[in-house]
Design brief:
The complex is a heterodimer of chains A (120) and B (107). Chain A is 0% helix and 55% strand. Chain A has 120 residues and is mostly beta strands. In chain A, strands 2, 4, 5, 6, 9, 10 and 11 form a seven-stranded mixed sheet that branches. A four-stranded antiparallel sheet of chain A has the order 1-3-8-7, with no helix packed on it. In chain A, β5 and β6 form a beta hairpin. The radius of gyration of chain A is 13 Å and the shape is globular. Chain B is mostly beta strands. In chain B, strands 2, 4, 5, 6, 9, 10 and 11 form a seven-stranded mixed sheet that branches. In chain B, strands 1-3-8-7 form a four-stranded antiparallel sheet, with no helix packed on it. The radius of gyration of chain B is 13 Å and the shape is globular. Classes of the chains: A mainly beta (120), B mainly beta (107). At the A-B interface, β5, β9 and β10 of A face β5 and β10 of B.
């Protein structure tokens, strides 16, 4: 079981950006894709996008396309998720998660979550 | 996007009960369905993948069934540790989508 350690809570103003990191405990990104999933307060789970480390290719859910960038630093086994032009509705806990379900994209290991609060 | 609809939204049950949660997909997703358990303030935990494959270490009282558009998660003999919120997730088609969740609470 891989450990995914995320960066700490952030507070941002509307219109600004935030970058959240997710560091793996072992060589993960050359083998597995890493996704980002968010959860607004009291709400359900929403998939945002993923990066396939082996190919260094990211893909995004349509509603996040253009507003989110996911990158990976293989040298440090760290994945980053940057969210731009923040709005109050982006207030949520952001999770990174490893995709490891054979040929499918379900998530068998999760980070602890990073709370991002957007408030003026 | 494929819509995932869970029912019920809330379920009240007692320790020892058998409970069933239903998840319906707006399109056929074969068996590309996962179930997660989430407790307050914690990350989700994968219970079942491919509709019916129990993840290693998950108690056998959990079981999943279904294919196509209709799926179920059954807990046979509810334990105190099982009171939580459960989510289904389809991974047949990107974007991957989740159900809205079913909260299992103590009766």
């Amino acid at each position: 079981q891989v450990q995914l350690e995320q960066s700490g809570a952030e507070v941002r103003r509307p219109g600004s950006s935030v970058k959240v990191s997710c560091k793996a405990s072992e060589d993960t990104f050359s083998t597995y894709a890493i996704s980002w999933v968010r959860q607004a307060p009291g709400q359900g789970l929403e998939w945002m996008g993923r990066i396939i480390g082996l190919l260094d290719v990211a893909s995004y859910a349509p509603r996040f396309q253009g507003g989110v960038t996911i990158t990976a630093d293989k040298a440090t086994d760290t994945v980053y998720m940057e969210l731009r032009n923040l709005k109050s509705e982006d207030t949520a806990v952001y999770y990174c998660a490893r995709e490891n379900c054979g040929g499918g994209s379900c998530f068998d290991d999760w980070g602890q979550g990073t709370l991002v609060t957007v408030s003026s | 996007d494929i819509q995932m609809t869970q029912s019920p939204s809330t379920l009240s049950a007692s320790v020892g009960d058998k409970v069933t949660i239903t998840c319906r997909a707006s399109q056929r997703i074969s068996s590309w369905l996962a179930w997660y358990q989430q407790k307050a303030g914690k990350a989700p935990k994968l219970l079942i993948q491919d509709a019916s494959t129990l993840k290693s270490g998950v108690p056998s009282r959990f079981s999943g069934n279904g294919s196509g558009t209709d799926f179920t998660l059954t807990i046979s003999g509810l334990q105190p540790d099982d009171f939580a919120t459960y989510y289904c997730q389809q991974y047949n088609t990107s974007p991957e989508t989740f159900g809205q969740g079913t909260k299992v609470e103590i009766k």
